[in-house]
Task: structure prediction
Amino acid sequence: MGAGIIGKAFYIQQVQGKYWESMSDSLHQKIQEIAADRGTIYSDNGQMLSTSIPQFDIYIDFGADGLREKSGKRFKENIDSLSVGLANLFKDKTEDDYKQLLRDGYRRESRYFLLKKSVNYRQYQALQKLPLVREGRNKSGFIAEVKNIRLNPYQMLGYRTIGLDRENSQNVGLEATYDTLLKGTPGKRLVRFIAGGVAIPVDEAADIEPQNGKDIISNLDIHIQEIAENALMKMMVGNQAQHGTAIVIEVKTGKVKAIANLGRRPDGSYWEDMNYAILPTEPGSIFKLATMLALLSDGKTSLDAPISLDGGHWTVNGRTVNDAEDDENANNVLQAFEASSNVAMAKLVYAAYKDHPMQFINHIKKLGLGNLTGIDLTGERSPYITQPGDKIWSATSLPWMAFGYSNLIAPLSIAMLYNAIANNGKMMKPYLVSDITFDGNVTKHIDPVQTRVVADANVVKQLQTCLYGVCNDPHGTGYTLLKDLPFKLCGKTGTALVANGSHGYADKIYQSAFAGYFPADNPQYTCVVEIVNSPHSHLYYGAAVAGPVFKEIAERLYTLYVRRNNQIQYAALDSLKSANKNYNYLGAANELQIFANNFGIKYTSDIASSTQWAMLSGDSNNTGKLVRQTFSSNNSMPDLSGMGLKDALYLCESLGLKVNVKGVGRVAQQSLAFGAPVAKGQLINLVLNN
Result:
């Protein structure tokens, strides 16, 4: 029996050996995917919005032939210098710790020993120059497994719209919409599994290289996005609102230049947690534009038609429609629209369509408000338009629809409607991506798409008159807010009571809205702002909450993009000698003193020698003054006007801000307003002028 066993063992080893070895290899080898490099998402001016950066997991094969030959001579000769290099590079262990770690791995002959995870590219380059490692994989045993991680350089800015490709989590935004283009085609390689289930690449096998993903060029303008985000943030924090959105669209094309979405987190901070721009809600009075479009298109009224507001209260079928205020001077339809009268809209629609409600509802559907917008963004939810036969349809549904209730419409759909009026009736499909590129070459260009004409030219002109009156006529609900602007705009305020789940309307939660376009004489941008306030908020009217956000966005965009000569001209230093030239310089106190002395500027000063910051101001006819300045460190934005770039950078970076600079000279404009709350990682744009 013993002889038989020995003979069988000899037969298996010598005769069948190659067969069983190949069988072993087939059981322990597997084809594994090699991930392709994911494409980059860019803004319209080429700034990276989402990109991939490589990270490396470093392993050591202590069973490598080159490492163990000649009784491990190569390993023993390099372990000291290698340990010093690793300690200096990673700074997480001492050289003695690394030496012991390497000795233990060598002693156990570990085939896939994990040395370090998540090594960045610079560290990896430095690692390759260390003793032993620089001799190559076969001699050193060092193996680098590369993986890509996704990075949003601007962090919160547009985060929900751009999205982030996350492992083991659902993608959102452009990352999800264009995932198949961005991710490319994975490659393949042969790996061998060893103890512990670790996979080691088989060197002699030919890999199939992956095809990298395509890049996409978005329509997002990072400056407009930052303006919208900051303006929205300021109001959200100041009014402790629940969530809000601000949308900016280019009138002629439908290109979406910015979508800001902010939701309040349990700790009271705000984050881009949901894309509220594409979530339907009851729009409130900003829907009255659609109401007027239907009435005027069907010839049911005219702007100069007289109408009674019944003291701001009108009862229909047992329910009372109320106006926020009774405007006794609103005597016709135009003035009633400007004053945002619920009573006027309800009376007009009820009288015109009570016997044929579908005639009014079909107008809403023809405008596309009952459909998805079609924007290239996943997650858009379907709107809801109430109609006869629905469970919630009642005798009061029609008049309440007239002023923005009973329907659920996304802010982006409202933006499409207002943009169509700004574009003389042509409704444009909103879109976020203009080009698909590969290796720098455009493989697909996406052109603007006109979806429909919303009304004839005469009706559109009348609607433009209505929106102009809201903002520029004393009857208008936006007049007080906007009367001091150096340009005219058109828009509509809105305030809607919104339900709070099972609590219904009892919590008095109001949605504040402002929708419009600017400038009135040559519209360039459409903007919609919707903010859902906290329960029982004291400040909730559209003109008081959403209006200031709209105003700040419009004012900033007009200055930066619309006005032809948007460069503020500052006097050169030698022009201080001319008559009546004022000057204000802000900066380090000692440097301002040197500056004034070198340019012969006379000034008085009572600041101490220890003063850090000062303001030098005056004019050419009088002696200047050097006055001490202090900057609060309570995370609010200081006024940087007149400050040199070096000092401005110091202050901004001390607040944890990321700074983007345009121009030369001293600060003329800052994107974060003076006194605005700031957070670490937030972006600020500084415009400099001589």
The chain has 21 helices and 27 strands. The two ends are 102 Å apart (CA to CA). Residues 65-90 form the longest helix (26 residues).
